[in-house]
Amino acid sequence: MNILPKQDLWKRTMRKLLLLDADVIMDLHTLGLFEKFIKAYEVSVTRTVLGETKYFRKDGQRQAIYISDTVTIIDDVDIDSLIHVQNEAKEAQLGIDPGELESVAYMRNAKEKVIFCTCDSAAIKLIAYIELDNRSISVEKALRDTGYRKRNLYPRHYQKTYERRIKEGKALRVQFKKLT
Prior knowledge:
two-stranded antiparallel ribbon; 5-stranded parallel beta sheet
């Protein structure tokens, strides 16, 4: 029987499969936290999100982003799921960009447990609207789970901002789905 040291066991149980949005990737690069993130999580991105993450700004300079060798790239997004999520976004009157749309569609039908990490207001509301909020996480919470405690995050990363958007998405669900 092979017994893992306590620290290795902890690392193995802490790793989650996270699906990242382009804004999160760019912000993590800007804040110098992307490397910490990929050491703590198994990170995936859709092909569209990969295409949206070309550059980030640091010290007033545009820096190129190269992540294709450190993340899993998802190419197989179900077209029916994509259409369904797009229709849900229209019904909720939410403008969703192609990367977020593709990510939510993939998460909706993923065979493995995928947790979507985004800081985009409309995407968070859509996740709650289609009742997938139990499969998403704020940037702040994801970073906290890695042991990161500093507070140099942007307000859109905060857990309280994420929770507010989730409530707004649930309210839209009641409003447009005529639920009580």
